Description:
The structure holds two protein chains of two kinds. By secondary structure, chain A is α+β, with helices and mostly antiparallel strands. Helix content of chain A is 52%, strand content 15%. In chain A, strand 9 and strand 10 (386-393) form a beta hairpin. In chain A, helix 6 packs parallel to helix 9 (425-435). By secondary structure, chain B is α/β, with parallel strands linked by helices. Chain B has helices at residues 8-11, 27-39, 50-59, 76-85, 101-109, 122-133, 169-180, 188-195, 206-218, and strands at 19-23, 43-47, 64-68, 92-96, 114-117, 143-146, 149-152, 157-160, 163-165, 186-187, 227-230, 234-237. In chain B, a hairpin with a 2-residue loop joins strand 6 (143-146) and strand 7 (149-152). The longest helix of chain B has 13 residues, at 27-39. The A-B interface holds A 273, 283-284, 287, 290-291, 294, 299-300, 302-303, 315, 318-320, 322-323, 326, 353-354, 356-357, 360-361, 364, 367-368, 420-422, 425 and B 99-102, 105, 117, 119, 169-170, 196, 198-204, 206, 209-210, 212-213, 232.
Amino acid sequence: MWRTDLFRTATFRLTLAVVGAMVGAMVLQFGLVYVQMTHFEERRSNDLLQREAGILLRDPPARLLNAVNERTAGNLRVVINGAAVFDSGFHYIAGDLRTWPEGLVIDGEVHQLTVHPPDDDPYDMRFLAVRAPGDRILVLARSLHMLDELRYMTRRAVWISVVPIVAFSLMTGIILSHRALSRVGEMHEAIERIMGGDLHERLPAGRGRDELERLAGSVNRMLDRLEHLLDEIRDVGNDIAHDLRTPLTRARARMERALARPADSVTLGQALAQAQSDLDQCFSIITALLRIGEIENGRRRAGFGPVSLPDLVADIVDLYDPIAETEGLVLLDQVNGASLGSADRLVVYGDRDLLIEVLANLIDNAIKFTPAGGTVGIAAERRSDRVLLRVFDTGIGIAEGERGAVLGRFYRSDKSRHVPGSGLGLSLVSAILRLHDARLAIDAQSGRTENPGTVFEIAFPAVGNLQSSGEIRPENPSLPTTRTPVAS
Amino acid sequence: MDDTPLNEATDGAPDAMPSVLFVEDDERFAGEVGEELTARGFSVHLEHTGPAGLAAARASQYDLMIVDRMLPELDGLSIIETLRAQNIYTPVLVLSALSAVDDRVSGLKAGGDDYLTKPFAMEELAARLEALMRRPNDTRATMLRVGPIEMDLIERSVRRDGRDIDLLPREFRLLEYLMRRPNRVLTRTMLLEDVWNYRFIPQTNLVDVHIGKLRRKIDGPGETPLIQSIRGAGFMLRVAD
């Protein structure tokens, strides 16, 4: 098991490939040496034979026989291994080649021929036959044993070097593979533990920067993110359970008490009415959650069209003005009438019903958290690439650290615990705005200290820009703003 | 036009009980609602599956239908579409556990006349059935007269017993809606949906504040209050002849 795993590792396969390449390179190298050597030796023997023949023929013809005989006996035998003189009928006259080599042509060129001695194995020699004065033929021969020896040495060198190199490489490969395998094994064990439910477990990632550790680092970062998301989901689940349990507990306690004591119908009716309102609160939480879920699924773009912000703001102000007045607040509409002529540029692409809900939630909040005598207002502004809508108040404000959290589900600032609400209004708002590709920013009103106030700024993409992307076709092209050129 | 008897909204018509076909697959819930409607003077017939509901709607003439959107075998919207295709125009109230505005739109598109999301208050259901049975007073007359109030739709002026009442446009719209439906329970949701065209449930008592403002304007000192709050339900413009 262990061994097959080892040989299957990428490292081991890489080692095998490297070994193969090395052996190939060696064979190629030695092959070239071999060919080069053969070529060189042939040329050398040709030169030697030709030169010797020249020397012998330059001597007076009478000396030829003596010279040949001397050579066969002398130390030149090492260089010229055979020499003989034949007559024109190829009959032996002198020298150490007793018979005319079979197939030898007298053309002054060197030929390689196989010699078949009667008492020995056949072997190759190189021959040169030239005509000598006196109608004789001079034959010189040189054996190939030097080349054979060189070739033999070369072959041996190949074998002697290949075996240890291959063995060494394989050893290295096995060791490296084993190391890689054990690291992967550790990772597998860690992953098994994570899959087993231990979400805090991480892959072993040292300080090294090799590819395996970088991969482990990426996987760990992914696990961090997933763990965070899971925690969030669990928190939301807990929050939902908690927020539902509170009114349910109250309702149950009321009913229990009403059941336990004999009570007149008025008391009973009161208890039931209170229980009913507790249940209604549960339903409003569930409804809000379902709506957020539905909006976040993004199925709602069907109702999209151009929406005029001034009209929207006029409607919402019309709806909330009496409330603000009852609470002793001034509700300011800075969108209509403030900057005439720009009204038709303040058009966004969206779902009117949902945008009304956004504004209603924001104004609702603003009114709730602004003390009497304060101001709640709405302003709008057209920038080159976006349309800004601001809802501001002079209320208690949201601490800087809490601004991100208030958009989460069920978040309620400590300052607002006493104010009733599902705690889901702002998460509904941010879900709707995400559907509109709009960004929501929360800030304090500048220059105020006692009641810092809050500014909710919504940045919608400008309609012209949306249109140019070709993604969205407003349903009502007769609105002048849909033809607003893209401001750059 | 204002000859509606005072007690009709709550007591039901004495001579003929309006018949209601209620198609709902949750039998316990259907039974509960059915009993409540019977107590309010409706004659209720219950069906629990889509095909049975469709068959019942074809077989006899009902005054009203309540159809749950999600039913086994045949869903509520298909029932309505089939009925409308066969020229049966019984007013239908669609019930749904889905609150989405899109679903509401598709429910009304399929031929439903009103849409109500579960859970709902029984008063809400009763008020809406009432509204479906009796169409609003959409007379073409340019003057509306309900009890002591006179409304001139052209001049957009309102008078009570000859005294001019100065109303903001939104107050005028609200009063017109009430005057076209005198002596009927109108819930907060109905007002929000019909007068302001809003489909969400506000966290504050928006409607009450608007009604309060209107009340202070139309009820002079010593005069009989005309707009009454109906506990647990909504409001009513109550006038005696």
